[in-house]
Design a protein that fits this description.
By secondary structure, the protein is α/β, with parallel strands linked by helices. Among the domains are: about 200 residues, Rossmann fold (3-Layer(aba) Sandwich), CATH 3.40.50; about 160 residues, no CATH class. Helix 9 runs antiparallel to helix 10. It is elongated, with a radius of gyration of 47 Å.
């Protein structure tokens, strides 16, 4: 429950602090006095967005702070999940800075608006005319039925399986799409892969083949050059090797005479050895040279295959082609894996579908049992609210689709008078009837689920007299289970509250302000009398006010 609310520099409120009690509290005031401002401030605490227009003084920040007792709401898990300090007496603060930035805090820990909104759902339910219209929404109607049917746990189990079911379905659809696309490309990819496999590509192969091709393609030029080199090197009388050996012998004779000659002798000796080795290599190269047109043609064709593949795949090296080959092999292999995965997912989906059907059937049976009880309770309450001939027709039929709360489709029909056909709520119920139906719904839900603080914002629209008295009594009965606040224009409802606040405007130094005051018993008599007769209070109005309060 909310225990206190303080507002500073918001709309027409300069500074306001108010303490709330448990039970049934009333807020009254003339139209435009500022009741909507109080609700707006609470809305900010619950995570609604704000802007600079909220600031009364644009040079100062706006601060709204609300205190809540939450020990009975089982919210420890929420605080732990959001890494917040849990306190039985929790404080929510909202600040709007002159710059337009907004900050929010839960027990002095900064939070974002989403976290604030998630917590707000457990703390306050502000019931307005707009929410009354939500009664026509099928999801809201199901929530009402499911509360009576005690379907909360089975729906959670159903939703957990549904989440996995939808995930598997999404994966399956993705794989099926991929399989379809792959199948179209598979034949071409297989052709490309076979081309690459047939080419028997190896890293470095292109360079080796190009080198061999150059040798074979220029064998005559190469052989002529090598043979000429060998002839020059090895000619018996004037060959290079013979001359080097003679130089070597000459230097060897004078080597002992000087370190200089010794060095030259050693160098020429090394040169002879190196030249002899070069000559031997040339001899081997000459012997290996073959004029092999068949081999040349084979290598040429092999290179042409490589060049064609590189051009087709728009790459420059054999390593690039090998990489493409690996990808194509994986692609072909992946298609086989896709088929296996599709089979697994299909089995999993079938099992989850079976589980969902079991949960959905249980949800359906619980609803079938709850509907007569809900209808009877609604009729019993509404008869006391001036709707003696009200009837409801709620039909749930299991369909094939999996919805978020089961497989049921709902027809929630209503008739207010004898002899009239059933129709949809939003089409056949008046504003006053919708308000009374919503109050009846809230009263019933209070018996079956832990509701947060309820704030009724002029739920009395379209009613008066004895009906208003009964509405006040119902709200007072509800306040035995929870904290209830009602903003009302009807004295009959105002008189039922345990505490009574009045919103009014005042003018200070040409500045209009909204203020909120907790009324004493005498002030309360006067306020209700004014609600009955207007600004001029008669004796009969005072007596009537006292009677209502008694």
């Amino acid at each position: 429950m909310i225990t206190s609310l303080s507002i500073k520099n918001y709309a027409l409120i300069e500074k306001l602090s108010i303490d709330f009690s448990k039970g049934f509290s009333i807020i009254t005031g003339e139209t435009g006095a500022g009741k909507s401002i109080i609700l707006g401030a609470l809305g900010l605490v619950l995570g609604k967005r704000a802007d600079l227009t909220s600031l009364k003084n644009k040079e100062e920040k706006c601060v709204i702070e609300a205190h809540f007792k939450i020990s009975k709401y089982n919210l420890n898990a929420f605080f732990e999940a959001n890494d917040l300090d849990y306190e039985d007496d929790t404080i929510i603060r909202r600040e709007i800075l002159p710059s337009g930035k907004s900050r929010a805090f839960i027990n002095d820990s900064p939070v974002n608006l989403q976290e604030l909104q998630e917590l707000g759902v457990y703390l306050i339910d502000i019931h307005s005319q707009q929410q009354t219209q939500e009664l026509s929404d099928e999801n809201v109607q199901f929530q009402i039925i499911d509360a009576i049917a005690a379907n909360q746990e089975v729906i959670v189990d159903y939703q957990n399986v549904l989440k996995k079911y939808k995930s598997d379905k999404a994966k399956l659809n993705s794989l099926l799409k991929k399989q379809s696309e792959s199948a179209k490309e598979q034949e071409y990819n297989t052709f490309l892969l076979n081309e690459l496999v047939t080419a028997q590509l190896k890293s470095g192969q292109q360079e080796e083949l190009e080198e061999e091709f150059e040798k074979l393609n220029n064998v005559e030029i190469i052989k002529e050059a090598i043979d000429k080199s060998l002839a020059i090197a090895n000619e018996e009388q004037f060959g290079v090797l013979q001359n080097l050996n003679e130089i070597k012998a000459s230097l060897h004779k004078i080597a002992p005479f000087s370190p200089e000659y010794q060095n030259l002798s050693e160098r020429i000796t090394s040169l002879v050895i190196e030249f002899d080795d070069v000559s031997g290599e040339l001899q081997k190269a000459s012997e290996k040279l073959l004029n092999d047109p068949a081999l040349l043609d084979f290598i040429s064709q092999k290179l042409q295959v490589i060049y064609n593949l590189q051009k087709k795949h728009q790459v420059l090296t054999v390593d690039d082609l090998i990489e493409i080959q690996t990808k194509l092999e994986n692609s072909v292999l992946e298609l086989g894996n896709i088929e296996e995965e599709i089979a697994k997912l299909t089995t999993s989906i079938d099992q989850k579908s079976t589980d969902l059907d079991v949960f959905a059937n249980k949800i359906h049976e619980n609803r079938i049992e709850a509907i007569p009880l809900l209808s009877a309770k609604l009729i019993a309450i509404l008869e006391t609210l001036g709707m003696p001939n009200v009837r409801f027709k709620m039909d749930v039929n299991e369909g094939e689709a999996y919805f978020q709360n089961g497989k049921d489709e709902l027809q929630f029909l209503f008739s207010a008078n004898k002899g009239t056909d059933f129709g949809l709520l939003k089409k056949v119920a008046s504003g006053g009837e919708m308000s009374r139906i919503m109050l009846a719904v809230k009263a019933i839900l209070a018996q079956y689920s832990k509701l947060p603080t309820l704030i009724f914002d002029e739920i009395d629209t379209g009613v008066s007299g004895e009906i208003a008295i009964r509405m006040g009594e119902i709200m007072k009965e509800m306040s035995e289970q929870m904290q209830v606040l009602a903003i009302t224009h009807l004295p009959q409802i105002a008189a039922k509250g345990e505490s009574h606040f009045k919103v009014f405007k005042s003018t200070v130094d040409d500045d209009t302000q909204s203020e909120l005051k907790l009324l004493s018993q005498e002030e309360r008599v006067m306020e209700i009398a004014q609600m009955l007769s207007g600004a001029v209070v008669s004796d009969s109005a005072l007596n009537h006010a006292k009677a209502l309060l008694n």
